[in-house]
Amino acid sequence: MSTTHGISLGWFSPSLPILQSDESPIGESVNINDVMWIGSMLAVGSLICNMIIWFPIGFVGIKKCMYFVALPNVMNWILIYIARNSIYLYVARILLGISGGTLVVSFPIFIAEISDNSFGALLRHFFMLTLCGGITVGFVLVFYTTYHVLPCIVIVLPILYVILIIPLPEPPHDLLRRGRDEKAEKSYYFYKNLTKDPTKQNENKAEFNSFRERVLSGGVKEKITFQDFFNKVSMKAFGLIAVLLICNQMSGTFAIFNYASTIFTELGSTMEPNICAIVLGVVQLFGLASAVLLVDRVGRRWLLMPSLALMGLGELSVGLLKSFASPHFLDHHGWLGLVLMCFVAYTSSAGLIALTFVLIVELLPVKIRAPGASISMCGLSCSVFVALMTYPVVINEYGVDVTMYMSAGFCFLGFILMGTFLPETKGRSMTH
What we know:
Distance between the termini: 29 Å
CATH architecture: Up-down Bundle
Largest sheet: none
Number of helices: 23
CATH topology: Growth Hormone, Chain: A
Helix content: over 70%
CATH superfamily: MFS general substrate transporter like domains
Structural class: mainly alpha
């Protein structure tokens, strides 16, 4: 499902040129104001979802919320197919935001609660890998299919996703939190792949009881109070998450991909702008793959700090190229802008993008993990909204160079603050 959501996100950037043309498939061309709002409606939908998602997670469980992810995604593609004006696309993006808002809260928690500490981060990185892989697939599908064919292809994927997750039991943490100990025990055996051999029944039972005590000692069944959010540990976690989310979006990790075609046109690339965007997506996947290989070897800090610093230097270089290179130089060295943007894509995905959801889950105390993740995603949605409203205006009014200087500034700010205060969370227990 993360791949499907990625395809939905990847649809936007390469579709902009045709939507803004006189031959727009929705019957009218969209202007810069429409572009801003179509892009940012994603964050509005995500924010609506993030504000309430932890209530259903707490009452009906994570898995039922995961079922819901597919419905608004399907409706998004239906509206794109039947769109007759930009209002259809506004609503489609709101629905996509609701789907994504549920996805980015429920999936990382689900993964954290069914996996061992030894490879939990690996699975959470796989979530980001498939999400970003979906964005690249979205770029490719838009380039090689038509506006009305693409929805007919992609709409099958969320339906397939629902069918595939039906056999999976709910996470044992989630069941213990809601007082369903018997189901929690069966779920624990399933995800731990414990044998049903009668001779090992007592051993398995003892292992589950030990797990149950660790989970319950973290206070997951106790009533959550305001004090749980405003103690020293929680406040530090939320402060670090706030800095992380602001840097994640205002450094351009998402907005740059949304407006990649426009940026490559400004940089004088000799390649088709949409092809450049596809190359950028492929490079991002290599960055995420690097993170998967390195995260449990070098730790979170040693991935995040170089990522922020190198991404900032890359964006600064793109800005300087645009500011000081002559049109003649750009015409004959259009490849240089692509190389620098690929450097930005690689360094951002190898650290900042790959680690954001991992760090959110690992920094939050287990007792407030579900509501804390929901609050964090509200912050992410607000950051996405600001970024998607800001970037097209800054690019249009001030140019790519100013946009890149702004993005680099946020990278360097994040490097200073996170480098000073972020603890190493590698190997941190997910049960308390």
